Amino acid sequence: MQAAFGRPVPKVYMPRFSAAPISVPRDGLALPRVAVVRTLFDRGRAPGALAEATPAPLWWACCLILCLLLLTPLLLTDVPPLLDYPNHLARLTVLAANGSDPVLARFYTPRWDIIPDLAIDVLGPLLLWVLPVHVAGRIVLGVAILLPVLGTLAYSRTVLGRRTLWPLACGLVAYNGALLQGFLNFSVAIGVALLLAAGWLRWREAEPLRALLMAIPGAVVLFFCHLMGLLFFALLIAAHDLVHLWRLHRYPRAMLRSAGMRLLCAVPVFALPVTLYAVSDLNGMAGDIEYLSFGAKAAQLLTPFANYWLPLDIGTGVLIAGGLVAGAAAAQLWMPPRAAIALGLLGLLYLVVPFGFKGTFALDTRFVVLAGFLLFGGMMPVALPPRTKQAVTIGIVGLFVVRMAVLGGVWWTHNADLADFRAIAASVRPGETVFVTTVTPEEAPDYWNRGPLARRMSNGLRTDAHLPALLVIEHRAWWPFIFDNPSQQPLETREPYRSLAIRVGGMPPHHDLEIPGRVALCGFDKVLLLGAGGEPNPASFAHDRLRMIASADAAALYNVRSDPACPKLMR
């Protein structure tokens, strides 16, 4: 058999790219199988140029090693420096108690509803019933780290038709900016979407009933994991269907008939998730739309590689992007059409979707993270000379090792801040209310610039903002910033604490507490100052309102002096 560009196809590819007719019984046609389809990246190269599949024992061994290496940092600290993670863990602690703890029950009550953001809220409490809180929390993190990787490998196996080592390089984006911000439900949904898409692509044409029986409940699971995962799944199967319809473009009637049949198959898959969204609080929620500036939006392209050290993240992005461009220019990358179309749709959505909407932020950024996994799951190098293949392998493995070593070092040094924080918080008693303020980078730039890498991501976002959630987890105290948005979390803050949290608003810069009338401390027993090492004299900070209990570099704790003008908060 000759390929479309006159090159012979090796024997190993004959079964997959044969010229035998394929039957299309629903359309009443028999069409020759297309040997080669031009895509954005293959530049007309025949799939016959692909390397042979990796032997299964070697592939499984490499997969196991990758997973173990990705989980290793979880052994270095019991509370990793992920921005939202302590806040999520506090909510899981309350949900696991389910009203059995009288102190926590005074502050919060579970509020289960139709919420498209519940993956860890279902898994976490189940683990907390049988495991210590910080062990259960790290298991949840392990699931959020590994699922996107496993989903990428499954999708690659299906869309490329073989096991290769290339998709294992997705380990470079396993610890991405979205994960380090604590978007755990989103991370879980990435993996579930890729796994479901792999099953759909495998069975849709040969066993459509099996594909539907998998996809219908799978789409509901994705809805409750995260809406972005459901959208990702829809894009992946839409790209698959578009390729099949394109193969019928010379036969308009058959193409329209096939499109109708495929649309009918999609209806039962997405009917229930759409209905659930229509009756959810999120659907009726109002929210401002926020777009980033052009420069800020462009900076989000680094999110798949965002970590704690900016030079390394930029270097990783440049090396990967440069390698892909060079490979495409040399016609040494192959991307099947359905993966290329899905990648193009993600790029389009990234351009048009806002940064914030309905109380959710970094919406456009998440499409970049999805594209990061798809780059490794939906393409592969072809016809690389042996020395080039060896250099690429050594480069990717070396880059992965360096990134994991940096991340592991950062997480290990984070233990010093955790020890400081726990020592400072030791005097907080169950049932107390704690106000939180902070020394901001604007107030003490030198202090923050020389501080540990664990306190800030490479994009400048602080990772310690939700560390006070440990007051709930370890001391059963109350602090005003637990996630309890009714459209996103199954938790409600009881009165009068809910009104107190609304009055507090956000976490103010610490100097605001020294300005008369700027910050009201009525209803609070203590004040926690984050980044206390940036305050030149923490002992005299707001001394007319506060009395210092203890101080360290990471935080300081104060008693609130009684104010006759403050009404007593009901206990």
Low-confidence stretches: 1-50
Straight-line distance between termini: 82 Å
Count of discrete domains? 2
Strand content: 5-15%
Shape: globular
Radius of gyration: 27 Å
The percentage helix is 40-55%
Average pLDDT, rounded to a whole number, is: 89
Major beta sheet, strand line-up: 8-10-12-11
Strand tally: 12
Structural class: alpha+beta
Largest sheet: 4 strands, mixed
The number of helical elements comes to: 19
Outline the fold blueprint.
Layout: E1 21-24, E2 29-32, H1 56-71, H2 85-97, H3 102-107, E3 108-110, H4 119-128, H5 133-160, H6 177-180, H7 184-203, H8 208-225, H9 227-246, H10 252-279, H11 281-284, H12 294-299, H13 310-329, E4 333-334, H14 337-352, E5 356-357, E6 360-361, H15 363-377, E7 380-381, H16 386-424, E8 434-438, H17 445-449, H18 470-475, E9 491-493, H19 497-504, E10 526-530, E11 546-551, E12 555-560
Parallel strand pairs: 8-10
Antiparallel strand pairs: 1-2, 3-9, 4-7, 5-6, 10-12, 11-12
Helix pairs in contact: 2-4, 4-5, 5-7, 5-15, 7-8, 7-9, 8-9, 8-10, 9-14, 14-15
